[in-house]
Amino acid sequence: MSSLDDYIARLQSSTVFQGLSRESLQEFARLLQVEKVKAGTTLMDMDAQGDKVYLVAEGTVRISRVTKHGDETTLNELSAGDIVGELASLSGHVRSARVSATTDATLLTLSGDQFEELLKKHHDVSINLLREMGRRLRKANDNVVAKLEEQRVNIEARMHRLHKLTEASKSINSTLDLDQVLTRILEAATSSIEADRGTVYLLDDVKKELWSKVLQGDNMAEIRLPLGKGIAGVVGETGQVVNIQDCYADPRFNPDFDKRTGYRTNSMLCMPMRNKDGKIVGVFQLLNKQGGVFSADDEEFIDALSAHASVAIDNARIAQEMVQSERLSSVGRMASTIIHDIKNPMSTIRVYAQVMKRKSGNEEASKLADEMIKQVDRFVNMTQEILDFTRGVSSMNITEVNFGELMTSVLDFIQQDLDKNNVKLIRESNFTGKMQLDQDKLIRVFYNIASNARDAMPNGGTLTVRTTQDGSSVRIEFIDSGTGMPEEVKKRIFEPFMTHGKKHGTGHSRPILTSPRRISDAAGVPILG
Distance between CA atoms of 1 and 12, rounded to whole angstroms? Predict the structure, then answer.
């Protein structure tokens, strides 16, 4: 664009210059300067001095206002033939809006003084400008009102989500039972973002797994996923949000579950659950948004719910620990009373055994007396450990022991009990060397395991005790042919005083004990049969 005729044609296309004669247009066109700008260029900014008027020759520009919070609202969109920058030039005030190119644009410019002279000289241009300003004002009003309506809708939506979050928080914090907490978290997540179903996984830091409970028939079953495996495992490991709109078009999705169940997974939202410190403590996996796909608002809601969920989970765990601690304290107080009463008769039995040994003169009777003394001493030591445990004190008595001789002695004693119950003992002793261990505690562990195995075989069976060396460790296995334990019981076998299906004792059947050459009860806590 360089000829005078081109400038005149551009002026004639503008409503502001309608009615001017060709001579007047020629006079005005000779004053114009050409500017070419790239998309995104700011032509004028708020609070800047107005010294130029622009006529858009090619492209589009936007007039906008920016709030003190940085929000920008569009007032008008201008295109070829429109004029901009006239108000500040005429009033002498600073610019009240920002003007920026939305596309590459060609602009014709003249100074504010030149534009003012044009208005004074040509009454028609002034009238046209007033009409154009009125049109733009109405359009700006329409844009502002539309923006306000949009903001109102957004605010109402946010208030609705806040209400849902508040109700969800009330629900998940209304119980201290961990299973119920997880159920309510899942219900709150699915209902709030209109998911068809989902799963809430918790992170097991020790095993580096995600675990959850799912309903299988009438029972709750636990499922576990390794960190880094599958979509949920990756989210649990990396903390990344995975929002899949079409699962079957995404290579990360494994359709095996759908094939087994007949369920069709269309969309998926998988997000980390973080605690107040930002640490990942679990994963939300939500399926099939009703009526569409999961949105950024859904992600924002689950992220907010995450903090409330992690607090509820922590509270439930703390409550469980407090209940367990109170149980242990109660048991300890009761045990303390009973043990004080037991020690006196035990001392009497020990003295009588010593007298029997001196007076019997019989080698067999002497051996039996020695065994009685040994067992009384073991029992007294055990009662003392229980007392120490109730007072929060634990100790170890580590000595070097010939492990082969220890196992022979233990299994001889165990066999006497098993023979009475039609249980055959199979010994597979593949390690007989020396070890550093707490002999009394380990013997007690073996007795209790064997006792539990015997109880699991009410009609008889076999108990195999196998010892093998594994590098610097020794593996001791107790394998029985009994009824075994349910999965839920297996997960709890190392809880203090936990029992299942027995009228006496708190021990457990069929565990496998793996430990280094220096074997002891890991916590120094008495293990009761």
Answer: 15
pTM assigned to the model: 0.48
- Count the residues in the chain: 529
Interval 329-376: pLDDT, tens: 676 667 667 766 777 787 788 887 888 878 777 878 888 888 888 778
- The number of domains in the chain is 3
Quick one: 256 exposed, middle or buried, by C-beta within 10 A (0-12, 13-18, 19+)? exposed
Pairing of strands 461-470, 423-429: parallel
Tokens 């996996």, residue located: 285
Percent of the chain surpassing pLDDT 90: 12
pLDDT, tens only, 102-157: 999 988 888 888 888 887 888 887 888 888 778 878 887 887 788 788 878 877 77
What gap in Å lies between CA 453 and CA 441, rounded to an integer? 19
Pick the more confident residue, 438 or 424: 424
Task: Please state, in angstroms and rounded to a whole number, the distance separating the CA atoms of residues 129 and 18.
Answer: 10
**Which domain, by its residues, includes 64?**
4-146
Residue 361 located in a structural domain = no
Task: Give the strands of the sheet with 72-78, arranged side by side.
Answer: 42-44, 98-101, 61-66, 72-78
CB atoms closer than 10 angstroms to residue 93: 12
CA distance 301 to 409: 64
Domain boundary among 284, 310, 336: 310
Residue 76 lies in a domain: yes
Q: State the SS3 of 355-386.
A: HHHHHHCCHHHHHHHHHHHHHHHHHHHHHHHH
Any idea which residue has 């095993």 for tokens?
207
Q: What are phi and psi of 58, to 5 degrees?
A: -145, 145
Distance between CA atoms of 388 and 395, rounded to whole angstroms? 8
Does some domain include residue 100? yes
Q: Collapsing DSSP states into helix, strand and coil, what is residue 500?
A: coil
